[in-house]
Amino acid sequence: MKETTFTLKSPVDGLNLSCLMVEPEGEVRALIVMSHGVMEHKERYLPIMRRFAEFGFASAINDQRGNGQSVKEAQDDGYTYGAGSDGILRDMRALAEHLMGLYPGKKQFLFGHSMGALCCLGYLKRYGKDVNGVILSGLPASNGAVGAGKAYIKLKKRFKGARYRDENVNKLMTGNYASRFAGETSPFCWLNSDPARVSEFEQDPLCGRIYTLDGCLSVLDMMSEAYDDKGWDKVSSMCPVFIAVGENDPCAEGEKGAAEGERFLKRVGLVRAEHKSYERMRHEILNEPEAEKPIHDMLNRLVAWL
Fold first, then answer.
1. Average pLDDT taken over every residue of the chain
2. pTM metric for this prediction
3. How many domains does the chain have?
């Protein structure tokens, strides 16, 4: 397989978007446009991209603005340059158009994890005519307090500025997820049941830093867009969507949250939405000790959707 790193100019403001693509050795059967979560970067998805390539899928992912190498300065991590959720989705579209330009006529699927799953829903609403299926890993559960959270962040921005990093806002964003795991000391223990993988995340210099107020507002705006009942008319009712979450994922709210996500998608017309929760797993199901279970299910669906 072929692994390529390249740069795209954002159509929003010209920001250099650092991108990664993995292509299979032989025929490309279909395309997968990917989106990662907050506080992380594209290289963490190389293992699953390689698995996709083994099955003939060409996949691409960009560091979202303010993450990884899609920054103007190192201190800009967690800062979305005022572009908001709209800018993140337009960046994602630029990546998709690049991939479609390389492989015209191929089916296009979406894969997103956590915040990236919300991005996939926002993308689907805007550009659904080009999408043939969606996999949502660790989809954050809908939260009725989003409106109040956005108002609070906007007020903070007025006094502190868009680049300010606020511990209280960070707690609002993560909901004190770590506190649900008694006896575990890492603030990121909610990500994975394997302490070694949690430690890897903590030691990665491109992971885990508190987002700026600007970045936090972009995340909440994306959630608002993803769970808005309006605007789904561009999407085929037959587009399949697979929600995969860990049973012990406090962000996705496990089985309960995934079931609610499926009901939401069916309510807006996506009749082929489905979900599955995985025992003993937390938020990052692709990095769990038993990750092969959800990966197997994802690959089976992608092949079936061809």
1. 96
2. 0.96
3. 1
